[in-house]
Each structure stands twice: as C-alpha cells, then as structure tokens.
Design a protein that fits this description.
Blueprint: H1 21-27, E1 36-38, E2 54-57, E3 62-66, E4 75-78, E5 90-92, H2 107-113, E6 119-122, E7 125-128, E8 131-133, E9 138-141, E10 153-156, E11 159-161, E12 167-171, E13 174-176, E14 183-185, E15 191-195, E16 198-201, E17 207-209, E18 216-220, E19 223-226, E20 233-236, E21 239-243, E22 246-250, E23 256-259, E24 262-266, E25 269-270, E26 274-277, E27 281-285, E28 288-289, E29 302-304, E30 309-313, E31 316-320, E32 325-327, E33 332-336, E34 338-342, E35 348-349, E36 353-356, E37 359-361, E38 372-375, E39 423-429, E40 433-439, E41 448-451, E42 460-464, E43 470-472, E44 490-491, E45 505-506, E46 517-522, E47 528-534, E48 540-544, E49 553-557, E50 563-564, E51 570-574, E52 577-582, E53 587-589, E54 594-599, E55 610-611, E56 616-626, E57 635-642, E58 651-656, E59 666-676, E60 681-689, E61 695-698, E62 712-717, E63 726-727
Parallel strand pairs: 1-2, 5-6, 6-9, 7-10, 8-11, 9-12, 10-13, 11-14, 12-15, 13-16, 14-17, 15-18, 16-19, 17-20, 18-21, 19-22, 20-23, 21-24, 22-25, 23-26, 24-27, 25-28, 26-29, 27-30, 28-31, 29-32, 30-33, 31-34, 32-35, 33-36, 34-37, 36-38
Antiparallel strand pairs: 2-3, 3-4, 39-40, 40-41, 41-42, 42-43, 44-45, 46-47, 47-48, 48-49, 49-50, 51-54, 51-62, 52-61, 53-60, 55-60, 56-59, 56-62, 57-58, 57-60, 59-63
C-alpha cells in the first residue's frame, strides 16, 4: 500500500499535469531543488529552473534538460524522436539542436565547453560569429562539401588566436570576412592549419599574422575569392605555407606582404602578387603566378625588398606589359627552370642580385637588368640537340639581351692543358664537307686555325698567331678583280686607340673610263639607295634614290664644294599681263602663267597655286604690280593665301581710306616662310574695292611705272630647323596708309 512512511512506494505510474509558473516556483523553492516540468514548446528563454531539471513538451515529445544556470537559459534538448546516431561530444548546428543530433547551436558555446585536444564538428550552415580561441582544437565541417568553392559550412566573422603555443586545425570550412580579417594570429609559437577550405575576402584581407617565433599558418588544398584590392594575407613574423592551392577567383589583386617572415609556396596557382621586406624570404616551387587571359595580367607578381634570400624553382610567371619580378637592393633571388612571359623592356628588373639557371622567356622581352647577375654553371658530358624532321631548322642560340657595356654572350670551348688535344668546333654537311676552327694545341704558340676538314692541322686555310699575324695557308688570296659591272670592296679594322691609327674602307675603280665607285643599300624588291663617286659626272659625290648614280640624284656635291639638291621643289613664275581682274571687290588669285623654273612641277600655271609635295618649311617671294588704281578705290589688299589649317595674316600690301591717284600703277613686295603640310597650297591674291573691274596685273613691257617691280612669284623648300610660319609683311593691317594723294603706298620687301 502506498504511503510516505513505507520503505517502498507502489504506484500505477506518473502523471504530469501542465505546469504553471506558480507550480514551477513551488517546485524550485530551494536552490538545490530539481523539478520535472510539463510545458508546451521549448523552455529556452521561457522557464526558469535549477540545473538538472527536466521539461517535457507534450506537443512534440521532446524532453529538455537544464544544463547550467538558475535563470531561463541553458536548456538543451534530449533527442527522443531523432534517428541521428551522432556520438561526437561537440556537434554544432546553425538550425538549432532540435532533431539535428547537435548539442550546440553556436560555435562559441562549443569552444567554451571544449578542452584542448577536442574536435568540434560543425554542420552545414552560416555562422556569423567572432570567435576567440585560447586552446588547441580541431574544427571539422561535418557532412560538408569539400569541392573547392562549394564549402557549405560558413563562418562569417573574425577568428582571434592570441594565446601562445596552441594549435588549431580547420577542415572544409568557408571563411567570409565581415569587415575585418577572417584570422588574426598574434601569439608566439602558435599554429593554424586550414585544409580544403575557402577564403572569401570580400571586404577585408583574409589573414593577419603578427606573431613572431614559432608561429605557423599552413594552408593546403584551399581556394578563395579575393575582391577588389583585398588579398589573402599580411604576415609579420613566423612562417606561412601554401600547398596545392588555387586562388584564381580574383577581381583586382591586392598584394600579400611578408615582413620578417618566410613564405613557402608549393604546387599553387596564384593570381595575387607577393611582396617581401626586412629579413623575409619567399620560396616558391612548381607554381604559377598570373594568367595571360586575366584582366589584370599586366602585374609584377614577385617583389623583394630588404635583406632576404629568395627561391623560385620550376615556376611560371605571366606578367604581360609589366616586369615579372622586381628584385630589390640587398636581396638575392635564386631562379631556376622558370618560364617568364613579359613584354616589358625588362622582364626581370631591380637593383638586387639574381642567381639563375634555365629561364625560358615566352614574351617579346628576355632582358634581365638587375644590378648583379650570376648564372649557375651546368656541367654535362656530350650534349646532342636537334630533331631529324624535314624542314626543321635546329637552332642553338645563346643570347644576352641586356644592352650594357658589361653584358656579354659567350661560348667557351676548353681543354685541360698543353698536353691535351685541340679546342675546336666542327661544321659538317654529312657525307661531303667539313670545316673546323679553333686552337691547334699541337703547334707552338697555340694558333687559331680554320681548316677545311674535321680536324685542325691537316688542310688549314687560315692560321693566326696570338700576336695577330695572319697567314692564308693554301696560297694567295685575291682581293682585286677587274671586271665590268663588278663591285669590289675591302674593309680594314684598326683596333689601336692612338692618334695616328686609322681605319679606312676603300672603294676603287680602275680609272676615268670605268664605272662608279659606290655603296648600295637595298630593301629587296622595294627601295634602293646608292652613294659614291659618279665617274661620269665630273667625279661628283652623289646620293641617289636608285640602283645607280646619275638617274635620281637627291644630293650632288661637286669637287669644288658646291652642294645641290636636284629634286628639291623650286619654282619662279611671272605673268605676261592680266587685265580686268579686280576693282569691284573681287578677291582674285593671281595666275602666273609663265615659269622660268619649276623643279618637281609643284607650281600650276593654270591655277596659280603652289602645292607642297612634302611636308616642311617653304620660303616664298612675291612682287605684285596693280594697274590703274584711281582715287575711286576705297581698299587695296595684296596677300598670301593658303588652305593650311593654321595660317598667319600675311599681307603684302594693304591700303584703305582716301586713295592717291595711282593711275600708272601700285606695287607691293614681300617674303614669307611657311611650315606646310604635304598637299596644301599657297597663292597670291589681289583685292581692290570701290571701283569697276578694270584693274589688272601688268607684266612684260607693260611696266611703265616702277619697272623694277616686275610681277613675279618664286618659292622653294628650305631647311627644317625653323618650325612655324613667319610672315614678313602686314605692318599695319587695320590702318589707313593713304590718307592723302601726296603719300604713295608703302612697300615692304624683306628677303632671306
């Protein structure tokens, strides 16, 4: 029988009625009371109870336990209807703990309860948390996608590790920046490992390391997105490792920097630059920097500064129009088996030192202009290169593209000593001819020898001693040939740097009945220039735009010193007389229909225009007479005219106001230098207003007034030293020169 005073109490079962707040308070009367409560829904944040209390939710069958605290928080579900078989101690779910098998809804709570050495499993979801880690833990994305870029466990926020000598590992997690770095590692002797992770730096750099001794950050099989100007890391102290990583999802690369640190890059593809300073070292092996197709291909990917030594081995660097590598003063780069693509003048640049082995340049530039360059020495036995394919030219090229005085390209062929064989090179056409050249070690004085065989000393053609004496061993060498139409040339070089030492090239023909002594320059099939002595033209020196002298001479210099330019445009034109051309305001372009000289036919006797055949500076001189200018005329203008875009006011004569009676004529003269464009023209225009169209331009015997001023126009091309247009007229363009019949018109005439 049931009773409180019995040792054993029997009952048919427990029945829990809905618990009211008053009932819960009664059950919690003491600080150590534990209650069993019956409420609808989760008690978290609703029901206050002591630790170890139980709450049953009759609507779902879920049971909750109060794990900690005395308030209404700290309730965790005890799964009663989930089929989840998780056995891990720390499981975090972003969707809560109900029915997920998880026992934490935030990573921070799991970190708080975990001990060093524990593993925290994180289920798929986004966790917006700033985490501080003070112990050694492992974080594992549980049932997560490990394919690059598809990680579905996302931590958005900052992870701070400021405790020394802790090691934290992260697997399969996506790290999103949230206005600050994703990782801040500031403690000494600490280590972070990230594997199969994704770094999404959209609004800040991803990683900041400022720890010193023993600090390591290790990234393997990872990828990421680096938004505009942001980059993967800034390291100041410790070591940073990148292995089997791809960072090609980049908008505009920011530079990752290392200071007093070491960075190791193995088997990676990176689209962000690396920069070192202070004692830092960069070591990259079997990696690719930059892409020819990327929108920011024109980037210097490796920049060193400070005092560190660096290594690039079996790497490819694509830098476009930028230098691929910049080696700063005080730093040394060891480079071996590199492929460098750059079109910059200097593919590798800087004031530091490069020690290099095999470097293949795939761009248009192969120049290394660092201050110090030391090639590695490669030792091989017999080296055979080439392919037997038809139509293939096998080429062995040794090139030093640096254009400085100390830069050389050199092949050394060396034997062991005086008892050794010869140091020589052999050229062979298989089955037919051999030529050899080199040092004949079997002859006293070790002469340089060219031999028409596969060895030196048998059929020598040329032998030269170390003192410079040369001999043609096989007989006389004929350097003179007398044959019509054959050019003969002889070149001599004198390397002595003294005042009496000369080097002369002689081009000689037999005499006055022979052809010309000349040099010819030709672009095959297009243009030929020839210079020399024209033996048929009083031995003048001639430069001709043809294959022979005397046909299209451009410059001719006579033996007396006169220099002429036969093809330069020059003309002189005049008129026999023009009548009734102006007077009524007609702006008449004077047509000088007769010429005494018109080289190049650039002046037209039908239009009165001189058209520039080539761009350059031209000098024009003009004298113009106008007939029958009476007092009725109100304006007289004589001027140069042109269709040049920029043309100065160039008046030869301008009269306005009350005119004197110039019945017998009115004259003006002037010169002008004009910078002309090819195809543009110059004319002389005359305009008289206020009377009838009865005024002409007299010429020949019509000149009864001022007979010295014959109407003429001349012009020619002059030297290029003058740049611009220089009118030597127009002294009073707007004034009234003739205000009285007693004052004749003023005439300006300046010649060069």
């Amino acid at each position: 029988m049931a009773g409180f005073e019995n040792d054993v109490m029997y009952a048919i079962g427990d029945r829990l009625e809905p618990s009211t707040a008053q009932a819960i308070a009664i059950m919690q009367n003491g600080s150590s009371d534990v209650s069993r409560i019956n409420t609808i829904g989760s008690p978290e944040g609703v029901v206050a109870a002591n630790p170890s209390s139980l709450d049953h939710d009759p609507s779902t069958g879920q049971v909750y336990i109060k794990r900690s605290g005395v308030g209404n928080t700290g309730w965790l579900p005890i799964s009663t209807n989930s089929q989840d078989l998780h056995t891990a101690k720390f499981i975090v779910s972003a969707t809560g703990t109900v029915g997920t098998g998880a026992n934490y809804s935030t990573i921070a709570d799991a970190i708080f309860d975990a001990s060093s050495g524990d593993t925290i499993f994180i289920m798929p979801g986004t966790y917006t948390e700033n985490l501080t880690i003070t112990k050694s833990l492992t974080f594992f994305a549980y049932t997560a996608s490990l394919r690059m870029g598809d990680q579905n466990v996302i931590i958005t926020g900052k992870i701070t590790i400021a405790t020394a000598s802790v090691s934290n590992n992260f697997y399969g997690i996506r790290f999103n920046t949230n206005g600050a770095v994703s990782f801040s590692l500031t403690a000494n002797s600490s280590r972070v490992t990230c594997q199969d992770c994704y770094f999404n730096a959209t609004n800040a750099n991803s990683i900041l390391v400022t720890g010193n001794g023993g600090t390591d950050f290790y990234i393997e099989n990872c990828s990421g997105n680096l938004a505009s100007t942001f980059t993967l890391f800034t390291i100041n102290g410790g070591q940073f490792w990148l292995k089997n990583c791809i960072f090609n999802d980049v908008t505009t690369p920011g530079t990752s920097t290392v200071t007093n640190s070491d960075i190791f890059v193995f088997n990676c593809y990176l689209l962000f630059p690396l920069s070192s300073s202070a004692t830092s070292e960069i070591e990259a092996v079997n990696s690719i920097f930059g892409s020819i197709q990327s929108p920011f291909a024109n980037t210097t990917w490796i920049t060193t500064a400070g005092t560190g030594s660096h290594l690039l081995d079996r790497c490819t660097i694509n830098s476009g129009t930028a230098s691929a590598i910049s080696i700063g003063a005080g730093t040394t780069l060891m480079a071996n088996d590199l492929v460098v693509q750059s079109t910059n003048t200097n593919a590798i640049t800087g004031a530091g030192t490069i020690q290099y082995g095999n470097i293949t340049f795939t761009g248009s530039s192969s120049t290394i202009n660092t201050t110090t360059q030391t090639p590695f020495v490669t030792r091989v036995g017999t080296l055979t290169a080439g392919t037997p394919n038809t139509g293939v030219t096998n080429v062995l090229t040794l090139t030093n593209p640096s254009n400085t005085a100390s830069s050389q390209a050199q092949v050394n062929v060396t034997v062991g000593g005086t008892s050794s064989g010869d140091a020589y090179t052999t050229y062979t056409v298989a089955g037919t001819t051999n030529w050899s050249e080199g040092i004949d070690n079997s002859v006293s004085g070790d002469p340089y020898v060219i031999s028409a065989s596969n060895a030196l000393g048998t059929t020598n053609v040329l032998s030269m001693t170390t003192a410079g004496a040369a001999s043609f061993v096989l007989g006389n060498v004929d350097v003179t040939k007398s044959a019509s139409g054959v050019d003969v040339s002889l070149t001599a070089s004198n390397t002595s740097n003294t005042g009496s030492s000369t080097a002369t090239q002689y081009l000689t023909v037999a005499g006055t009945s022979a052809g010309d002594a000349r040099v010819q320059y030709a672009v095959s099939g297009t243009t030929t220039w020839t210079e020399g002595v024209d033996n048929s033209d009083s031995d003048a020196y001639v430069l001709a735009a043809s294959t022979a002298l005397g046909t299209t001479n451009v410059i001719r210099a006579a033996t007396a010193g006169q220099i002429t330019y036969p093809l330069q445009p020059i003309f002189a034109a005049y008129t026999a007389g023009l009548t009734n051309v102006t007077g009524d305001g007609t702006n008449y372009a004077i047509i000088w229909e007769l010429t005494t000289l018109n080289v190049g036919s650039s002046y037209s006797t039908s239009t009165g225009k001189f058209t520039a055949p080539v761009s350059g500076n031209y000098l024009f001189n003009a004298t113009v007479n106008l007939s029958a200018v009476t007092v009725a005329a109100t304006q007289v203008i004589i001027l140069y005219a042109s269709d040049e875009a920029v043309f100065p006011a160039a008046r030869i004569l301008q009269c306005a106001g009350t005119m004197a009676d110039n019945t017998n004529g009115l004259a003006g003269a002037g010169s002008m230098i004009l910078k002309m464009t090819a195809g543009k023209f110059v004319t002389i225009n005359a305009l008289v207003s206020g009377t009838t169209k009865t005024i002409g331009v007299p010429g020949g015997t019509e000149l009864t007034f001022r007979p010295l001023y014959r109407s003429v126009l001349s012009g020619r091309r002059i030297a290029e030293s003058f740049s611009g247009s220089l009118p030597i007229v127009d002294q009073n363009p707007a004034g009234s020169w003739l205000t009285s019949p007693s004052i004749p018109p003023t005439i300006f005439n300046m010649s060069f």
